[in-house]
Structures are given as C-alpha cells and as structure tokens.
Design a protein that fits this description.
Oligomer: single chain
Shape: globular
Structural class: alpha/beta
Distance between the termini: 20 Å
Number of helices: 16
Bound molecules: nicotinamide-adenine-dinucleotide
Helix content: 25-40%
Order of helices and strands: EHHHEHHHHEHHEHEHEHHHEEEHEH
Length: about 450
C-alpha cells in the first residue's frame, strides 16, 4: 500500500544521449553490449536496472516487479551514443584493440554500427595522464576555451542526434592525484582558474563543468577528483542536476565490501589484508604510472577503514595492515587477476586465513554499471533530484557524500538504500525488514 504520493517524475519521452568521456575498453564494451542486447543477441547480465526486481509491500503480497517496469527508465532502444577520446579510433577499432569482446561473435555483427561512432576531439593534457599520447585533441589558449568547446559539442550532439536528454559518464583514464585546493572552492574562483590555466583544474573537471553548464548530469567512473569539489557540487545543486562518483566498484573492491561487512557482523578480527592485481590493458598501463596509481590507491584503500570502524572496535580492527598493489602485466589484457590474502582472527585471538583469487574481466564487470548509471542519472534528473546522488553509491568504490557525512561502503546497505530510494520515488512503503507483523498478529 502506498504511504505517500512519491515524486513527480517527467516521463522518459524521446531519445537519451549518452556521452562518454573516453572510448576505451569500458566504453566500447558498454556500447557494443547495449547494441547486442537491443538486437536480441545477448542479455544485460550484471545490470540491476535490466535484470533486477524490487519487492514492494509485505512478503505476503508477492509483488516483485522488474525494476525497469516499476520506475520510468529510458528504454535501451532510445539510447544514442557518442564519445570523446584523444585516440582517433572509431568504436569498432577501439573495441578490437581492447580485446574484451569476441571479434567474430560480438563485434563483426555490429561492425557498421560501431564504426559510426567516431570520437570527438578530447580536452586532453598529458600532464594528467602520463602514459598516453593523443592526436585527437582540442586546441585552445585557456582551459576555459576548452570547456566552451566541450559545451558546444554537447549542444551540437543534442541537435544532430535529435536527443531530448543527455547524460555524461566519465569512462576515461585515471588522472594524476589532485587534492581539493583554493581553485575548487567556488564557481567564481574555478572559472578564473580555468582562464589562468591553473594546474589544479584537470581535464576531467572541464567535462564536468561543461556538463553542468549545459544541464547534463555527470557521473564519474574513475577515481579522479573531477566533480568531487565544492565549486561543482554547488553548481549542480543550484542548477538542480544530479552528480556522482567516484570509481566504478567492479571486482576486487566489490568483494572487499561484501567480505569486510561479514567479518564485522560476526565480530571477527582482522590483522591484515593484502590485495594485488595483475592486468594488461591500457588502464593497467596508465595505472603503472605512480601518480595515476596514487589516485586509484586512495580509492581502493578507503573502504576498509569506513566499514570496520577501528575507533569503535580497537581490539578487532585497531591494527590492520592493508596493502593494495596493481601490476601491469601485458599477457593478461583485460582479464585481470585479483588476489587477496586476508588474515583474520577469532575466539581468543586464534588466527585464520582466507584467500580470494578473482579471475575477472574488468570491462565485463564495468559495462553494466555504466548502463545503470546512465539510466538512473537520467531518472534522477527527471525526478528533480539534485547534487550528489548518494543512493547510487552502490556503483562506486569511493562514493561522494554530503560534506561531513562518511560514505557507506557495505554493498548490501548500498543496495537497500538504492531500492528504498526507488520505492520512495514511486510512493511505496520503505522495507525495514522488521517483519513483526507476521508474528504478532493481534
Ligand atoms: N574496468 C573496470 O573494472 C574499472 C573499474 C573502476 C574504474 N575503472 C576506470 O574506468 C576508466 C576506463 O577504463 P578502461 O579499461 O576503459 O581504460 P582504457 O584505457 O581502455 O580507456 C580509457 C580511454 O580514455 C581516454 N582518455 C584519457 N584521457 C582522456 C580525456 N581527457 N578525454 C577523453 N578521453 C580520454 C584514453 O585515450 C582511453 O581510450 C579508467 O579510469 C579505469 O580506472 C575501470
């Protein structure tokens, strides 16, 4: 039974333009996957928006519609894609080079479609991604000029593709580590810093700024600071636009945010967690640079601290040795291997070990996340949700939150929050899992 009216949500009429920053392994796997699903030749496995259901009301009501039938999401057939990349390869060539999807089974049948997606010149600067060189880049005297060119790209995509709404997802390389500074504090100083080519303004921030100025939601799939600065957060709130990040939560960190809450739930101690990765794709090559790795490391390290709360449980988690390594190893390509050695302890302090060896495919795990973020950010905009979308933390390693709030990393709390937000949007009861009414019938 509905308890409140829910939100007014504008219908998903017309086409939804998905503009991707970066046309590498993740972006091409996402685009090719959506087209394959649209042609009835595959399933959107890993996508909560496409495969998931949501329970409504009491367990006895047996109401569990598909999420995409419950909330008014854009239909896959209405998605139109474009991307920016400093490497001029079209989506077909980029997908073949990325080597994620099977060329004969999944790329050849949609070759014409993929070849039609050619990257727009990027706002790119090698200072921020040391291991890349690009020729397909924008020229401008100042960063502000580059941002204006990105705005023009958005406007002309709206017209030429005939889309009624646009979302932007950052699927580009991880930039060097930057901390929030004076240039990020207000819109006025941010704009001035762009004009003065201040190094504190990374290319990713130009895309985020351009998006918000053109009334487009922006999601950040990499760990770069990007939209996680006061100037852009305020801009998003003022213009009533959804933003969020950072860093898609795919393989190793997803496992970490499942296992760590289990140890804590059972009050088992943790002495150390050693995580290492070998991967050989371009992302791995970029992350081989210590400055880009630092950005990723911060994002991967944060989760345990917040989940385990060492301040509250000093005997259990006060002395955890946590290490994360990423090693570039070309023979593996996109097929990463993530090893975890976990030293836990139980009753009276007796030690035990757990080993996780996840032979995952990075972009196969990331593609459905890009899809869900594009659809949910579009929904959020139509529901007039503005600023940081914490309910979409489920998808991020290092979720943005309101100032002063610590991020929630536990995957299942994040999932509950996401589903309860959908219930709230549609005027359905929240599910609390109390369930006392099934027993105390009087
Ligand atoms: N695959 C995963 O599981 C996963 C998980 C979390 C985060 N990520 C992040 O997603 C991003 C994409 O990963 P990928 O495997 O597709 O990498 P990739 O190297 O295959 O693709 C990234 C693309 O971004 C382009 N690029 C770099 N700077 C750019 C700029 N300023 N503007 C436009 N394009 C730019 C590069 O030329 C490249 O083609 C990376 O930052 C990665 O760390 C991936």
């Amino acid at each position: 039974m509905a308890v409140e009216a829910g939100r007014d949500i504008a219908p998903a009429t017309g086409k939804l333009g998905v503009m991707l920053v970066g046309l590498g392994a993740v972006s091409t796997t996402f685009i090719a996957g959506v087209e394959t699903v649209r042609r009835g030749r595959g399933l959107a496995i890993g996508s909560l928006s496409q495969m998931g259901t949501i329970r409504l009301g009491k367990r006895t009501e047996k109401r569990s519609p598909k999420i995409r039938e419950f909330v008014p999401l854009a239909d896959l057939k209405d998605l139109v894609f474009t991307a920016w990349d400093p490497i001029p390869d079209d989506a077909y060539t980029a997908a073949v080079k990325a080597g994620v999807l099977d060329r004969h089974e999944h790329l050849e049948p949609i070759k014409d479609f993929l070849q039609g997606i050619k990257p727009l010149p990027a706002a790119f600067d090698q200072y921020y991604v040391k291991r890349l060189q690009g020729t397909n880049v924008k020229r401008g005297k100042t960063k502000r000029e580059l941002a204006e060119q990105l705005r023009e790209d958005i406007r002309s995509f709206r017209k030429t593709a005939g889309v009624s709404r646009v979302v932007i997802v950052w699927c580009a390389s991880t930039e060097v580590f930057i901390t929030p500074g004076p240039a990020h504090q207000s819109l006025a100083v941010f704009e001035k810093a762009m004009e003065q080519n201040d190094p504190a303004i990374a290319p990713s921030m130009l895309y985020a700024y351009a998006a918000l100025m053109e009334n487009v939601p922006f999601a950040n799939g990499a760990p770069n600071l990007t939209v996680d600065v006061p100037a852009l957060e305020r801009l998003a709130e003022e213009r009533r636009l959804p933003i969020g990040g950072k860093d898609f939560k795919t393989g190793q960190t997803m496992m970490k945010t499942v296992l760590a809450p289990a140890f804590k739930a059972r009050m088992l101690g943790l002495a150390g967690w050693y995580s290492t990765n070998i991967l050989g794709n371009r992302d791995g090559e970029v992350l081989d640079d210590p400055e880009s790795f630092k950005t990723k490391e911060e994002s991967k390290l944060g989760v345990l601290e917040y989940i385990l709360q060492p301040d509250q449980y000093p005997e259990l988690y006060g002395n955890v040795f946590h290490k994360v390594r990423i090693n570039y190893y070309p023979p593996r390509g996109d097929n990463k291997e993530g090893w975890d050695n976990i030293d836990i302890f139980g009753w009276l302090g007796y030690p035990m070990q757990i080993k996780v060896d996840f032979l995952c495919r990075d972009s196969i795990l990331a593609a459905p996340i890009v899809l869900d973020l594009a659809l949910f950010f579009d929904l959020a905009q139509r529901a007039r949700l503005s600023g940081i979308q914490e309910w979409l933390s489920f998808y991020f390693k290092s979720p943005q939150t309101a100032p002063g709030l610590y991020p929630e990393h536990d995957l299942f709390i994040q999932q509950t929050k996401l589903k309860n937000t959908l219930r709230w949007l549609m005027g359905e009861d929240q599910i609390t899992h109390l369930g006392i009414e099934y027993y105390e019938k009087a």
